[in-house]
Amino acid sequence: MTVKNEEELLTAVEIDAEDGPEDAVAAEEPDVATGGPPDRPAGPVRRVLHGAARFWVAITLVVLLAITGGVTAWLYFNQYKPDQATGTAAADTALSAAKDGTVALLSYSPETLDEDFTNAKTHLTGDFLNYYNQFTEQIVTPAATKKSVQTSAAIVNAAVAELNPESAVVLVFLNQTTTSTENPDGSFSTSAVKVGLTRVNDDWLISSFDPV
């Protein structure tokens, strides 16, 4: 081989050496996308995601409404309703029931005994109602019929002593006038009675009647 051929060969090797690595690196490097946001999910996938989001929002609203409703019910039955059953309006109702019932119990006339007793019974309940039935049949009716006993009561004052959602106690002060064939001019008396009340179907009825 001549010197000239050796120089040409060396030059060719150098050129191949310079070009080879860069071409290899360029061939091995993958194409990389540049710029721009990633592709959005395809249509069906996007609809599924949106549907799931709406589903969980609906579930959350239902849970919140249930919690709110439960809290409201708890407040009503544990705070508002007991207060309503023992508030001023309830006290006034119990007071009126005690006064009306007392007058009905202690007012009767021989001419209207059955009507008077029937009216009185509408104000009573429980064992006291049973006692009143027996008392009027065995004692009041014979005395009123035989001696023409007539009595009337008038409330002087009354006050609520105890008030609970289902029971109450009212102190009643009253005047009572009684006439009979033995005492046509009549007798006058004052007394105080402790009236026990029980709530029955939203009505206050007398369940005890004790002189003080």
Low-confidence stretches: 1-30, 79-83
CA-based shape = elongated
Helix content: 55-70%
Question: What's the helix-strand series?
Answer: HHHHHEEEE
Strand content: 15-25%
Q: What is the CATH C level class of the domain at 87-211, in words?
A: Alpha Beta
- The secondary structure category is alpha+beta
How many beta-strand runs?
A: 4
Cα distance spanning the termini: 149 Å
**Sheet bearing the most strands, described?**
4 strands, antiparallel
Written description of the protein model:
With 212 residues, the chain is an alpha+beta fold. It has a domain at 87-211: VirB8 protein (Nuclear Transport Factor 2, Chain: A), CATH 3.10.450.230. Helices cover 56% and strands 24% of the residues. The protein is built from 5 helices and 4 strands, in the order H-H-H-H-H-E-E-E-E. It has helices spanning 3-28, 43-86, 88-105, 113-121, 126-147; strands at 150-163, 167-179, 187-200, 203-211. It has a 4-stranded antiparallel sheet with strand order 1-2-3-4. A hairpin with a 3-residue loop joins strand 1 (150-163) and strand 2 (167-179). The chain is elongated and about 105 Å long. 13% of the residues are buried.
